[in-house]
Amino acid sequence: MIRNLTLILITLVSLTALAQNNHKYVKLSEKITGKRYEIFIENTDSISYDIFLKIETNDFRRSSERPILQTIAGKSKKKVLTMVKLNGKPGKYTYILVVNEVSYALEVDNDYEIIDFKLDKEIHNKNVVIYTKNDCLICPDAKHILTKNKINYTEYNLDKDTTNYNKVIKEFKTIKPKSDFNKIPVLKIENKLYNDIGSLDDFIKCLREAFN
């Protein structure tokens, strides 16, 4: 995957450098000890990212000019480079950081397109509940995503269980009093409720938000 990513990243660097240097979850930091500069990449998201890092400087040894391609796991901080400052130099440098989500192809049944999606292991112990109805078009595939990613969940079909239907409406109104309970599926993860799910993309976005 890294090899295939290299050519894409090099092509996109000039267009995406500014935005990627300010990525929401992936940041560069440094630790300075004398002439020794240690460069770290921290990922505060719950999923992994591939990063392309290019340091541009005249103040350090040539080793600092080599592009770096690495995968940074979710909720981790990794040292990716050590640079040694040249004598008489102030130690200035600029960098280009391009970040791409690590994903794998998840086949969804019923002729839906392949979805690229990844969740890391730490999410599997979360308390997940999905509320469905018989006429919900995306519910089977939403459940398929949970199953394929080994996310344990409890399902309540609101056409068959009016008790839980009334319960979830009451709970939803408590958490989001100004919102209407008008869409299925409803996803509950720990104490978070999501009902504005109109597509599988929306469903995946809710998973991402809930697990961060």
Architecture overview:
- With 212 residues, this protein is α+β, with helices and mostly antiparallel strands.
- It has helices at residues 2-21, 139-148, 162-175, 200-210; strands spanning 26-33, 36-43, 49-56, 68-72, 76-84, 94-101, 104-106, 115-117, 128-132, 153-157, 186-189, 192-194.
- The strands form 4 sheets. A 4-stranded mixed β-sheet has the order 10-9-11-12, with helices on both faces. A 3-stranded antiparallel β-sheet has the order 1-2-5, with no helix packed on it.
- Strand 11 (186-189) and strand 12 form a beta hairpin.
- The longest helix is centred in the first third of the chain and has 20 residues, at 2-21.
- The chain is elongated, with a radius of gyration of 22 Å.
- The protein starts with a helix and ends with a helix.
- The model is unreliable at 1-19 and 103-117 (pLDDT under 50).
